[in-house]
Amino acid sequence: MSIIERRQNALPRGVGQITQCVADHASKGQITDVEGERWIDFAGGIGTLNAGHCPPSVVEAIQAQAAKLIHTCIHVATYEPYIALAEKLNAITPGSFAKKSMLLNSGAEAVENAIKIAKHATGRNGIVCFDNSFHGRTYLGMSLTSKVEPYKKGFGSPANEIHRVPFPFAYRLADGDQKKANQMALNAIKEAFINRFDPSQIAAIIFEPVLGEGGFISADAEFYAELRQLTQPYGILTICDEIQTGFGRTGHFYAAEHFKIDYDMIISAKSLGSGMPISAVTGRAEVMDSPQPGGLGGTYGGNPVSCAAALATIDLFETTDLFEKGQKQATVVRNALLDMAEKYDIIGDVRGVGSMLALEIVSDKETKKASKALTNEIVQYCLGQKLLVLTAGTQGNVIRLLAPLVMDEDMMESGLQILDKAIAHAAKA
After folding, report:
1. 178 and 112 in contact (C-beta within 8 Å)?
2. pLDDT tens digit sequence for 136-173
């Protein structure tokens, strides 16, 4: 019986399966499957492997820590790696104000705790989030997430006091005019404050600086500045969800640096640990200190081995040329995607920030009609050529690229050539 057959027998169907790839080992930007076939990885563990598969220094840090201390629970016995990582996150996150950090296991868990902290600090219950957002599959995470299928369908009523407002999606809302899209979104929020909910009862507004699962939709620094000016007078806290945008993907440790976002809490996960389960909420010290002792945390949060992986990952960014490699990759990929857009009418939009780039696939460039079918055609062609790619967007018509920043130039070029051929194939279908 094959491993895929064993998977089907042992796992519930709700644990989605994107590809038939059965990984055996991996390095940098390449996965080798159990049959010895090599795959070019443009998925990057859904944005988790910015520093590449199995970075040697991270592997060494994991091995050393595992031989020394695997677990005590931070609530029971303090251990230095948790403290060291919190100190490091307090230092590298943008903002000169006093900060504190707590560690968790996943992005969704960090979102849940950031919301808890915001509600406790403000004494309010309401949360504002954006259209096309994704904040996880937990109960509160799915309540904040826009997309119904597959994330919310059949799972019951969402959490209460969740208010959704438009994100300034320039391509679809304003024919590519970002300033116009900004104003439309801000006007909608102002209108919501009058007619839909009381802003004085809102604890926080949460957003991804670049919407990940929503289709790599970005705003600009002007929008985030105006959003802060709009919400801050009401005492509404700002939660910046950097689960997918963090750790070099946009050219900085955090996209908040790129957009100059003034926040109260910022969430780290995914590439923080180079594949190990680790996440964090970092925020203003007075906000983070609001909950009573015992109100925050979890048994495995900030596991020593995961902390060691995260510290080694941060060290890679601070001591090597990872940021520079990411910038070079961004230039190469963006230029290639723009060239493809010139050739193929099924590409409606090329967008993203840094090396967080995407193509929106349409059946009609004039009407911008989304085509999930053509997108799937592209993906299947790529998979047939051993190129891992992911879709995104609430309509499933976005190809998103999240290749490790350390991917070799030749491998990147080979992957882009396969993607080009895949789009050409779909365009003729």
Report:
1. no
2. 999 999 999 988 888 988 988 889 999 999 999 999 99
